[in-house]
Amino acid sequence: MQRLLTLGVLLTVLLAGCRGHQSERPPIHPHLGMDFQEKFQAQSYNPLFEDKATMRKPVTGTVARGQLRGNSELHAGRTEEGEYVESVPIDVTRKVLERGKDRYEIYCTPCHGQTGAGNGIIMRGDYGYTPASSYHVDRLRQVSDGYLYDVIANGVRNMPAYGQQIPVRDRWAIVTYIRALQRSQNARPEELPEDLASRLERKVGTDGDAPSDTVRVAGRQPDASSSE
Ligand code: HEC
Question: Domain tally for the chain?
Answer without folding.
Answer: 1
